[in-house]
Amino acid sequence: MRRDQPPRPVAVGDVVAVYSEALGAWTASQVTGIDAAAKCAAVLELDWSGPEPETVADLGDDVQPLRLTHHSWGGKLSHCNHGWVLPKSFTVIGSLTSLVTSPSYSYSPMWGRGEQLARQRHWDTGDREDWNAPYALTCTADELATEHTRDVVRAGVKHLTVRGITRLNCARLVAAFPDLTRLSLSGNLGTLTSAAALNQLPRLQGLTISDLFGMEPSDCLLPRHVPEAEDVSLYGIPADYAAAMRKTWRPHVRHGVELDVRGARKPEWVAANAANPLRDWDGREHIPHAGYRKAVAQYKATRDAFLSEVTSGEQRGNIAEIGRAFGAAINTLDSRTHFIETVEREELFDALDFLTDEAQTAAGRDLSAARAALIEAVDSVRDW
Q1: Is the predicted pLDDT of residue 175 greater than 70, yes or no?
Q2: How far apart are CA 156 and CA 220, in angstroms?
Q3: pTM, entire model
């Protein structure tokens, strides 16, 4: 497999077809560019759906790109960069001269499977309500436990996203949702049990697990049990499970499996970072390790100073000073490598919320005013 070419053969001009659950029919796209350095493919969705096409001729004589007018798209083409692994469910049906010559500056990790065309057709009927996939369910772990797994089989749900997991039994989940094609599970150092049960989802195409633990190598998802799997994305998971999944699935990349395994964590790391709201920065690609360590140290110093201030029984008025010191320290760190982007900025404020929540519990009283003063002081000096 040449490193300057996609693992699964595809070239500029190729037209690919895939079955769309959103449309209940097949749809098609054209590859308009390949960036070997970034390992990306630019993909233009076509304004077409119908029976499974065998060749480009089956799309008709007037193949048109999909132009989006729904919501705020304003007539832009549905043209986006994706990872260059052509997913297993896509088939090359021929080639055409590229329908566009300009590059796309958008990026999405997942290739489109007709969702944008479904939204556009919904809009074209005159209905201005958002189009929602009838086969998709997004819920919290608490909602899943109380509303969606009471020994009732939900065969109509094909895409399931569960957030905020503290503890989840995968065997119960599989029993309740036996026909899943896509499953996304995320927590905050939560625990998955019976993860091997995910092998009992024979139609599974995509699996995402984020910030969840409890899985062992024996829980590995196995290709022979999920033959349609084409997207395995893992972040913030046990190190031995990560190694087993990487070893199992790496040979299948050439057959159309997008494999992304990052943030493998050892038990010692989990124990040490349970109360660290910036732990996701550890290993993030654009954040230098020294910057991460210093940011955590500054956070801890700020937490200790704030906690001392609000629990001392004295009104010393140092909260603004504490906030300014935090903001200025992060300014210094960011001035060196400019690693704080939109996500990191939001995470820093989330960390301050976490800090004040901890302090409020310790103080046993409402700290809304102190929280506001801290945030205002940070805002007054921050450059990020």
Answers
A1: yes
A2: 26
A3: 0.90
